[in-house]
Design a protein that fits this description.
heterodimer, A: alpha/beta, D-Maltodextrin-Binding Protein, domain 2, 7-stranded mixed sheet, 13 helices, 14 strands, B: alpha+beta, Beta-Lactamase, Heat Shock Protein 90, EC 2.7.13.3 (chain B), kinase (chain B), phosphorelay sensor kinase activity (chain B), transmembrane (chain B)
Chain lengths: 335, 455
């Protein structure tokens, strides 16, 4: 409860001026004002996409600004005219922005119906929440394949896991909150898992990136609900990391993009979104390094979060307060 | 031929206009009514879902540690998913305090206390439908009222309405087209009855005054009845006048003959020139009257017999031989030679008395107008058609009179002081017509008139 209030207090005065971005890069050169993209996605994933876009329209420059999903919502709501395109993995916050009229329509886009909402919000990735483990630190313990395995594994060897398990801090991360609420909606196992992790003094993170870093360095053994796409990329580089999609039901998130109604570069912004969706449809990893939408039902147990107004349920202030209270009761018990 | 009729509009067109106009009006009414019904039904559907969503949220309201809490299920909002991705807004109030949701939506002050309150409003130019309900929770410190409003945009609703509007418009158009076809058919059928009656009346011969016997629709019965009455009256009048003429001619001829024989006898006895002259004029006038009476009698007879023609085989050549033989004395009196050129046989199915009467009148006319020392030629040809012609070497017909001379009592200008009634050609023509033939009047190039009957 305290954290968001502090965060709001910190962010509000500086939103319009100098912002502490996680990353900020300018692509291309142009006399005109750059296309400002507010995003929660690491620059490394988006650089090829933006470069491809600039190659197609060389007279445009792009300013790519990265921050957390909860920050994006706050910053964008405070000054929607400052940004042209908003990209976030927090589907619920994005949908609420669209519902509240912050998104401009983009007509005649050839995109699956289930991957867009109200012609304004477009999903362009399918990314599951994963369990990531450090193989070395696990030793000879069996590799868990689902949530129940994970609970039993941690209960079986509390000394080893004490202070070395992690998950999102749902109070700070919009994506973490989305994963947690969808998880809790699907199964009671989530609460048991949180209680077990709470007893083990779980560390809470704002972002997937830091969790993966700490895993690789061996500070953590297990992280739960990590963004699978980031973890897979790191796992390719280092042997220690292992990415597990829970076999019972992996929660799958779709990254979404919208164009601000107050965009100063509305035409370029729309062109960028069209370009992005075109690259997604092509699915060439060289220009689209993110996992594209899963168009068929090949992974049956996969649980993709649907784009519909129900996403706003857990954004309700009372529901959010109640959920965070329960979550804190489960996981922050020892702090 | 047809006399001028004062025509104003057309029954058929009037019917078509009234029926298609009515059909168009009905189609428009149908369209409007169905459109309104469809809108009501669609709105009812949306209201039901909004009501369900609102109730499911309101049902979760509980007092928890002295505070109102609502832990509403995911389905409350997911049930509002529509194909058009309609946006959803909600507001939860405890009395005047917003617990969560959108503060601009509805404030509890506007609400009726009982049941679900529905309202249409707009948000950012989009039409919005709002359902609001309330519930009272009884806590230790008294009752607390919870209000829940759920609002949804109407994109899916208007999509549905547009689709149904299109279908209803097609329905209305189809209805109109079919009704118009029926209207045109009905109008044609109705006016067809009139046209058939008119045709059957028009096709009648000039003598046919029998009543219309074919069945006619009720609406036309008074008209046809009047027509029948009118025709029978006309027929009666005509018959009466023919009878009257025949009777009168007959009654006149007999005393005239007596008067004439007295005049002739007196002429033998009178010596003084002026007295002889006036007696001669008297005889002449009596002749003229007697001839006219004869011809009137002939005409009445012709009219009567023509209506009920008795047909038998008649050889026109034999008939003419006899006729010429009988008239030769009259011709010789006038120094005229009667010549016949007869093709044999000249058979005709007809009434010998009528034919004889007609030909006698023609020869009589020719003898009357032919100058002395000339020929009157009576000719019969049997190929290619049967014709009888009588020609003289007299002054001929005036060109401008050829068309009208066969009318009753019409006499030519070239007749000088000859005695005549003007009925001769009429009789000949009526006989020809009764036998399905024609009469033509011509002037010969070398001078003289020629009357030809073709059968």
């Amino acid at each position: 409860m305290r954290y968001p209030i502090v965060l709001i207090a910190l962010l509000t005065p500086i939103a319009g001026f100098t912002q502490d971005w996680e990353d900020r890069q300018v692509f291309g050169q142009s006399e005109a004002a750059p296309l400002r993209i507010l995003s929660s996605t690491d620059t490394s994933f988006f650089a090829p996409i933006i470069e491809d876009f600039i190659a197609a329209s060389p007279d445009i420059s792009v300013e790519y600004l990265v921050t957390g999903t909860a920050d994006i919502d706050l910053i964008f709501r405070a000054s929607p005219e400052q940004f042209d395109v908003v990209i976030s993995s927090a589907m619920d916050l994005q949908l609420k922005l669209t519902n509240d009229g912050f998104a401009a329509p983009i007509e005649d886009v050839d995109h699956p119906d289930w991957a867009q909402w109200h012609n304004r919000l477009f999903a362009f990735t399918s990314e599951p929440a994963a369990i990531v483990i450090n193989r070395n630190a696990m030793g000879d313990l069996p590799v868990p394949s689902n949530r129940q395995d994970l609970i039993e594994l941690m209960r079986g060897d509390p000394e080893r896991f004490q202070g070395r398990v992690a998950t999102y801090d749902v109070r700070l991360s919009g994506l973490g909150y989305l994963f947690a609420t969808q998880d809790a909606r699907a199964s009671e196992t989530y609460w048991r898992l949180m209680e077990v992790m709470g007893r083990l003094g779980a560390k809470l993170y704002c972002c997937s990136g830091q969790m993966i870093d700490d895993l690789r360095e061996g500070e953590l053994i297990i992280a739960y609900n990590v963004l699978g796409s980031y973890a897979r990329k790191e796992a390719e580089a280092s042997n220690e990391l292992m990415v597990i999609l829970p076999s019972d039901f992996p929660i799958t998130m779709m990254r979404t993009v919208l164009v601000s109604t107050d965009a100063s570069n509305e035409q370029s912004a729309q062109n960028f979104v069209r370009h992005l969706l075109r690259l997604e449809a092509t699915g060439d990893p060289a220009t689209f390094p993110l996992p594209p939408l899963v168009r068929s039902d090949e992974n049956a147990p996969q649980r993709t979060i649907n784009l519909n107004p129900a996403l706003m349920t857990y954004l309700d202030q009372m529901k959010r307060d109640a959920f965070i209270r329960e979550w804190e009761d489960a996981i922050v018990q020892n702090d | 031929m047809t006399p001028e009729v004062n025509v104003s509009g057309s029954l058929r067109n009037r019917l078509v206009v009234i029926l298609t106009g009515g059909a168009a009006l009905l189609a428009i009414i149908l369209y409007v009514v169905v459109r309104i019904l469809a809108a009501q039904i669609a709105q009812q559907g949306q209201d039901n879902i909004l009501n369900a969503s609102m109730s499911s949220i309101l049902d979760t309201a509980v007092l928890q540690d002295g505070r109102v809490a609502l832990d509403f299920p995911y389905s409350s909002l997911s049930m509002l998913t529509t194909g058009a991705d309609d946006r959803v807004y909600y507001a939860i109030y405890e009395d005047e305090t917003l617990l969560s949701g959108y503060d601009w939506l509805v404030s509890p002050r506007d609400l009726a206390s009982d049941g679900t309150h529905f309202e249409s409003t707009t948000f950012a130019d989009d039409p919005l439908r709002v359902a609001t309900g309330s519930r009272t929770l009884i806590g230790p410190d008294g009752p607390r009222n919870v209000f829940v409003s759920i609002a949804q945009t109407q994109d899916a609703l208007s999509d549905t309405l547009n689709a149904s509007t299109r279908n209803v418009a097609l329905l209305g158009l189809g209805f109109f087209v079919m009704s118009s076809a029926v209207a045109i058919w009905a109008a044609s059928t109705t006016s067809g009855q009139m046209r058939r009656l008119a045709t059957s009346v028009t096709r009648r011969g000039p003598q046919d005054l029998s009543p219309v016997a074919k069945p006619v629709p009720t609406e036309m019965a008074p008209l046809v009845g009047s027509l029948n009455t009118f025709m029978s009256r006309l027929d009666h009048t005509l018959t009466q006048s023919e009878d009257f003429i025949a009777e009168a001619a007959h009654r006149i001829r007999t005393p005239l003959a007596t008067v004439r024989s007295h005049a002739e006898a007196t002429l033998q006895r009178v010596e003084r020139t002026e007295n002889r002259k006036s007696l001669q004029a008297m005889v002449r006038a009596i002749d003229e009257s007697s001839r006219a009476a004869g011809q009137l009698l002939d005409h009445a007879m012709v009219t009567f017999r023509a209506e009920n023609l008795e047909r038998s085989e008649v050889d026109l050549a034999d008939l003419l031989d006899e006729l010429v033989l009988r008239m030769t004395p009259v011709a010789e009196m006038n120094d005229i030679t009667l010549t016949t050129k007869l093709d044999r046989p000249a058979m005709l199915l007809g009434d010998a008395i009528l034919l004889q009467n007609a030909l006698r009148n023609l020869i009589d006319n020719a003898l009357k107008y032919a100058p002395a020392e000339t020929d009157v030629i009576v000719k019969v040809t049997n190929a290619p058609t049967l014709t009888v012609s009588v020609s003289d070497e007299g002054p001929g017909f005036a060109d401008d009179e050829i068309e009208t001379l066969s009318g009753r009592f019409v006499r030519g200008k070239n007749m000088g002081n000859k005695v005549g009634s003007g009925l001769g050609l009429t009789i000949a023509q009526e006989v020809a017509a009764a036998h399905g033939g024609t009469m033509s009047l011509t002037n010969k190039p070398e001078g003289g008139a020629c009357v030809t009957l073709s059968f």
